[in-house]
Amino acid sequence: MVPVTYYFALAAILFTLGALGVLIRRNAIIVFMSIELMLNAANLLFVAFARSFEHLDGQIFVFFVIAVAAAEVAVGLALIVAIFRSKQSIDIDELSSLKG
Amino acid sequence: MFSPFIEGAEAAQGFFALVPWIVFLPLIGMLLNILIGKRLSENGIAIIAISASALTFVVSALQWFSLNANHEGAVVHFAEWIGIGALNIPWAFRVDTLSVTMMLVVSGVGTLIHIYAAGYMHYDVRYKGDPPSYQRFFIYLNLFIGAMMILISGDSYLMLFVGWEGVGLCSFLLIGFWFSKNPDGTTGTENSQAAKKAFVANRVGDFGMLLAMFLIFWAVGSLSFDDVFAHAENIAPGVVLAVSLLFLLGVAGKSAQLPLYVWLPDAMAGPTPVSALIHAATMVTAGVYLVARSAPLFAAAPVAQETVAIVGALTALFAATIAVAQSDIKKVLAYSTISQLGFMVAAVGMGAFVAGMFHLVTHAFFKALLFLGSGSVILALERAHHPLGKDDDHADDHGGGDHSFDPQDMAVMGGLRKQIPATFRVYLIGAIALAGLPPLAGFFSKDEILTDALHESTLVYTLLTIAAALTAFYMGRQVLLVFFGKPRSKAAKKAVESPPTMIWPLIVLAGLSILGGLLNFPGLHPLTNWLEHTLGHEFAHATDFNIVVATTSTLLAVAAIYLAWTLYGREPLKEGDPDPLKARLGRAFTGMQNKWYVDEFYAWLIIRPYQRFAAFLADVVDWRFWHDWFHDSVLAAGFRGFARFLADPVDLGVIDGIANGLAKGTKNLSGSMSKLQTGFVRNYALMVFFGVVTMLGYLIFFS
User: Fold this and answer.
1) Chain A closest-CA separation from residue B673 CA (Å)
2) CB neighbours (10 Å) of residue B537?
């Protein structure tokens, strides 16, 4: 049995990768995928801990997270399409009209 | 509330309860004339005023009737008036022999003068070109009767003072009756100046009255006559002396004694009935009444009594010398009045209260007669000079005519006994009464004063005897100048006798002047006995007839009249002749003619320094200091400076600073905050990330 520490490490790596992706990349699709990466890092931890503690709550929670993520993707992609229509670009650095 | 009740059950059967009407009847007459006088004819106005005065006389006579049955008199409380702490002064009427004597004289002579004035003013208002003033005249006249009644019926010094001021006001109003004219009828301010002079001179006396009342209240704690006289002997001698001397100041003002007499001659600017009523018969005798009323106070201060007697005697002589050289018929009578008032004041000063009151009464008769007679003479000349048209109500304004003619100047008269015989006869009676020839009224009253003076003080007796001789001389001179000889002007040739409304009161007064001596006939002394009920035996003793005094004064009077005849009668004055006395007396005559320059002396001593002082105050202190310097430099500049201070440092600096600082601070803060809004989504995400890390770190490591 793979110790939970490994899952934890993997989840940490995945989350870090996702976070860095959100902070560094300019392409809106990539940013979006990075967010999914972080969500899945969390899901992985839920499932790992659920198994380790032999408790189903974590697994059930993952379903909720996946459902919410699906909804988020639907809304998010719609937003990105709308942004592209108005700006002809999905570079998020160009979305700075609220700049002070 | 105003229901009068009587103190003392035994007085209830008399007419004493009616006494408030002596004040209210004239006031009702006045109000009627004020309210409906405009719609009435002259006769209607005169009837209202005369009825008011006559009814007052009837009420006074009823008081006299009741007093005969009940000599004690009564104090009739009418209403509460002042109640402050220890000061409690009701409006009370005092009915006793002294006040009723005054009431009878004032209302009696007053009524006769009202009747006379009804005729006289008819012409006067037309000569002055202002017929509506007829109504105003009778309003003032009734007001005067009311005020005089308050004066003599008051039960306390304060009530007396109310009347005292009231008659002063009426005197002012009536002296300045033709306030827009000069005495000669031209437009000017001399009449109102004379009114002002009377008011100011009286103010000096009133100041003494007020101080005296304050002192009395301080010493006794009450101003009612009974309280004050009951304590008169317990008051410290210095206080009584001060009170008496301050009263003397009031007397000198109101009764025209030295040194305040100067207003009375000028008061002749008023219409002649006013001169007769106020400035001869009634108001000016208020001072004599005050001293007689305050007999217990003066008796407690012998020094004050002597001062009063000497002031009176000096005034009597001083004014008599001036009267000798006056050429204005009314001025002679004015100075004669001052002189006769001096007799009365001297008498009451010597403690001869009855003699003073006696002379007051007889003088009221014959001096009213003389003044009214002079009014008749003046009117006779005026009417001859400019006859009024047939339609009297639309007389021309005579103000623009010939002003060189002065109907009061004795130089333009002469020979009037033929033109106006009725006036001449009554005037002669008045003059003889004043000159003091027996058996007319003036002889007895003056003689009683002289007899008392002989007992009290040789100085006063001498002064008064000389004054009495001068009186006979100037009255002889006046009668000879006015009625004898040849007319000295066209007007005098055509002089017109006055109407019966004017002659009848004169005849009544002439009768009183003849019979007035019976009032206190030697040996019988009805007036002494009458006043004794009020004054007490101590102050009302009968004076025996002194044949030496009587003979001396009569001989002197006859000699003076003979002297007057040698000067003015033997060779009557021709038109344009100077006064024959001028050649004999030279400079002394000029002095007398110019009233011994007293007015000029007062002008030099008081008026001009006062005016200079007032000019100094007005120009330097008020204008230059207050207006220019203080106002501009201190007030205006100070205010401007303060306003600038408020505007610049305070408003712009502090208030605006706070508002602007808040705005600027907010702006700066928001400016720097807005820099945080980079618009890069990744920056926001990083902040969220750090925020989450911080919060989680806190939760994990610190909680």
Assistant:
1) 8
2) 10
